[in-house]
Write a structure and sequence with these properties.
ten-stranded mixed β-sheet, single chain, mainly beta, 192 residues, 0% helix
């Protein structure tokens, strides 16, 4: 285990072997971090959060209470994951084969999900596998993401669909400027 001396692990949390925790990261009540997971610097992992094995979480991320981040998921820097968000990793989940023999670890395909820097995933959202959630995008609370989300896009609903363009500060924008931040980044779809 590689836990930075400035990381904090609550007494009730479970952090397995070969986990990497960065400086200033806090793992709170009853959270579980599985083997070989990497959690960057200055992250907050809330009560009851589940981080599966081999998951990669970038610096400055916030995972709110009871979020589940399963094997095959990677989060960029500064990602916000709301309470009760679930990142799934299997498009065809089954517990048994057609003859009712139990399936094992090698009997399914892991779907990968990548979340870009600065993205936010609202409370109670479900993210299906094999999608990319773009940087500075936002998934509205309660949405079900079934396909890629563009950079700077706000998606809403089940299935989640594009609703508006956002500034990195989170405000909706309709032109090449933001009322709070000024000019949008050069790679923004609305940049002049």
């Amino acid at each position: 285990m590689s836990v930075h001396p400035e990381a904090f692990i609550h007494d009730t949390a479970t952090v397995e072997n070969a986990v990497s925790l960065g400086a200033g990261t806090k793992i709170w009540h009853q959270a579980q971090v599985r083997t070989r997971a990497h959690v960057g610097e200055r992250c907050i992992v809330g009560k009851g959060v589940f981080i599966d094995f081999d998951v990669v979480i970038g610096d400055d991320c916030k995972l709110q209470n009871y979020a589940c981040v399963y094997h095959g998921v990677s989060l960029g820097r500064g990602v916000f994951v709301g309470p009760h968000v679930v990142f799934t990793n299997d498009l065809r989940p089954r517990s048994t084969a057609p003859d009712f023999s139990l399936l094992g670890d090698g009997d399914w395909e892991v779907g990968e999900t990548n979340v870009g820097d600065g993205a936010a995933v609202g409370a109670n959202s479900t993210i299906l596998p094999n999608v990319k959630i773009g940087k500075w995008s936002m998934v509205a609370a309660g949405s079900v993401v079934t396909r890629d989300v563009a950079d700077y896009s706000l998606v809403i609903g089940n299935p989640a669909r594009h609703h508006a363009w956002l500034c990195p500060c989170g405000r909706k924008v309709e032109s090449s400027t933001c009322s709070k931040c000024g000019e949008l980044p050069a790679d923004h779809p609305l940049h002049a």
